[in-house]
Specification:
The structure is a single chain. By secondary structure, the chain is an alpha+beta fold. The protein has one domain: Beta-lactamase (3-Layer(aba) Sandwich). Helices cover about 35% and strands about 10% of the residues. The chain has eleven helices and eleven strands. It has helices at about 20, 35-40, 45-50, 70-80, 85-100, 120-135, 140-145, 165-170, 180-190, 205-210, 285-295, and strands at about 35, 100-105, 120, 150, 180, 230, 235, 250-255, 255-260, 265-270, 275. A five-stranded antiparallel beta sheet has the order 6-7-8-9-10. The chain has a two-stranded parallel ribbon with strand order 1-4. Strand 9 (about 255-260) and strand 10 form a beta hairpin. The longest helix has 14 residues, at about 70-80. The termini are far apart.
Length: about 300
């Protein structure tokens, strides 16, 4: 890491590897300082905070989901190596060549095309229960990983806040701020395993390396199972998130979203919803199960 980002190598992070960032093992699942919405739309503010802080646990010794911080961490590595922001690189190497409606950092002229995200009843009930269970004066690090302190509400959206806020949509927040159609995401994932319009995003050797298990089992913070499994940047098939086959790789998202690629059937898949629900929401899971049944 420090070969690319020298300022990162402080406070016990000198030995952190890029693969640790990709596999949620760097100790940086959340910021130690509370970040506001104004902070998170400024790239330098966030990467300076993460790069200078002490890790929350010994890097490499365990994992905890970097719900949002992973986008800035990997994005800064990308910027240091290529000279491009992650949004620029995404447009040049992925969205542009595939001619899909997908952005990391939405152009302001397209704001009126974005679906308004709504908080469903199961998500509202979940976040209310979690709030009541928190101990005063004790940092809930998994919750901090989602909200970054004060950047948005625990549900991630509100009437005009969080990811319904045009400022947030236009900022490059790679860990959660990508905006796309379901068709665009399905095509992107398909292009990781098969050519789409002559474009192949990941070659077979890279795919094999990136989908080797790096993190699984209980995380460093007490979060009830079942737990996901992680490769390098990809979520793998597990009891927590069933895809089509054991070789599928992808990622699910807050509120019930799910997208992945499956090299066995040669399929790219995406399910998106503008009504955000909690962990008891099975809309995406049922569609994936139905697809598996159809494919036999």
């Amino acid at each position: 890491m420090i070969d690319y980002w020298p300022e990162f190598g402080v406070e016990g992070k000198q030995a952190v590897r890029v693969k640790d960032l990709l596999a949620h093992r760097s100790g940086l699942s959340a910021p130690r300082s509370i970040l506001s919405a104004a902070d998170v739309v400024d790239w330098d503010t966030v990467v300076s905070q993460l790069g200078s802080q002490a890790p929350l646990w010994e890097p490499g010794s365990g994992w905890a989901y970097n719900a949002i911080t992973h986008g800035w961490l990997i994005g800064e590595v990308v910027r240091r190596i290529t000279g491009e922001t992650v949004g620029q690189l995404f447009q040049r190497s992925v969205a542009g060549p595939l001619s899909v409606d997908a952005w990391i950092g939405l152009p302001p002229a397209l704001t009126n095309r974005v679906a308004h995200m709504q908080v469903g009843s199961t998500l509202a009930e979940l976040t209310a229960r979690q709030s009541l269970a928190r101990l005063p004066g004790v940092v809930d690090w998994p919750e901090r990983a989602m909200t970054l302190g004060d950047a948005w509400p625990p549900e991630l959206v509100g009437e005009s806040v969080g990811f319904n806020d045009a400022r947030i949509q236009e900022a490059e927040i790679p860990g959660a701020g990508g905006i796309a159609t379901a068709r665009a995401l399905a095509k992107i994932w398909s292009a990781t395993i098969e050519e789409a319009d002559g474009v192949r995003l990941i070659d077979d050797s890279t795919m094999r390396e990136a989908t080797r298990v790096q993190s699984e089992g209980p995380p460093v913070f007490d979060v009830p199972g079942p737990w996901p499994r992680w490769g390098m940047g990809f979520q793998l098939d597990s009891e927590a998130r069933r895809y089509l086959t054991r070789r599928s790789f992808g990622h699910d998202g807050a509120g019930g979203q799910v997208a992945f690629a499956d090299p066995v059937f040669g399929i790219g898949f995406a399910f998106l919803a503008n009504q955000m629900e909690g962990i008891d929401d099975f809309r995406g899971t049922r569609i994936v199960d139905a697809l598996r049944t159809v494919l036999g």
